[in-house]
Amino acid sequence: MERRRTIRLTVNGTRYEREVEVRKTLADFLRYDLGLKGTHVGCEHGVCGACTVMLGDASVRSCILYAVQADGQEVLTVEGLSSPEGPLHPLQQAFHEHHGLQCGFCTPGFLMSALELLAEKQNPGEEEIREALSGNLCRCTGYEGIVEAVRAADRVWNRS
Ligand code: FES
Ligand code: FES
Predict the structure, then answer these.
(1) In angstroms, what is the span from residue 66 Cα to ligand 1's centroid?
(2) Distance from the CA of 156 to the center of ligand 2, in angstroms?
(3) Could you tell me the pTM of the whole model?
C-alpha cells in the first residue's frame, strides 16, 4: 500500500505544503511536484552530483534523499540563484564567461556545490575548489573552465 505524508518546506523562498508518497525522492519532488527541472538527475545513486541542491546550509544529493526528509527545511535549487528578470548570480555569470559548461547537464550541480564552498570561504585555493567539486562529475569540460569560473566568481561575489 502506498504511504503518503504531508510535508511543509520552503523552496527558493516560497513555502509549499504538499502530500507526497513517502518513498519519493527529493529530486523527483522538486522536478515533478514543483516543476523545478533545473535540478538534473543522472546516476540516481549519489555518485554524479547532477542533482545537488542546498538543504539549509549544506549541499545534498537530492536523488538519495526522500522528500519527507526535507520536511520543515529550506531548499535552494539552481532556479533560486537568480530571477528570470534579474542579473545572473556571480557563479552563473562566471561559468558563462569562463567556459565552465558545454552540454550543461552537470552545471546545476556544480553551481550548488560551488555555492556551498564560496558561501563558507573566501579566496579558496585551487586544491580546495577541486576538493569541494570532487563529488560532481562532468563529461565535457575537463574541469579547467569550471575551476577558473569558481575562482572568478569568488573575486567578484559580494557576499554581504
Ligand atoms: S543523480 Fe544524484 S548523484 Fe547522480
Ligand atoms: S558540461 Fe556536459 S557534463 Fe558537464
Answers:
(1) 13
(2) 24
(3) 0.97
